[in-house]
Write a structure and sequence with these properties.
Strand content: over 45%
Low-confidence stretches: none
Helix content: under 10%
Order of helices and strands: EEEEEEEEEEE
Mean pLDDT: 96
Number of helices: 0
Structural class: mainly beta
Largest sheet: 7 strands, mixed
Oligomer: single chain
Number of strands: 11
Length: about 120
């Protein structure tokens, strides 16, 4: 069955960096675009970044442009989210997402906390 497993979250100081990973299994990873989303306390889930199958095209929420970078390694069935210059307001649970035509899947999420 389809599984998405995120990792790499944690506590980081303001201005620091984290790299999140999402390992996909149970489907043809390289044939599907992937995306990262986040949900902060008391907020709805929002899309952060998306990437096409070959990694050549990416899309970002305006709030993270220039600081976050999404990438993928199809040989490792993994999509990444490099986050730099972290601010307290980006603290959230980060989820990776896979969308098929008639269904979608989410990982369990990884917590990102930004605090001094």
């Amino acid at each position: 069955q389809v599984q998405l497993v995120e990792s790499g979250g944690g506590l980081v100081q303001p201005g620091g960096s984290l790299r999140l990973s999402c390992a996909g299994s149970g489907y043809a990873f390289s044939r599907y675009g992937m995306s990262w989303h986040r949900q902060g306390p008391g907020k709805g889930r929002e899309m952060v970044a998306a990437i096409t199958t070959d990694g050549r095209t990416t899309n970002y929420a305006d709030s993270v442009k220039g600081r976050f970078t999404i990438s993928r390694d199809n040989a490792k069935n993994t999509v990444y989210l490099q986050m730099n210059g972290l601010k307290p307001e980006v603290a959230a649970v980060y989820y990776c997402n896979l969308r098929f035509t008639t269904s979608e899947y989410w990982g369990q999420g990884t917590q990102v906390t930004v605090s001094s």
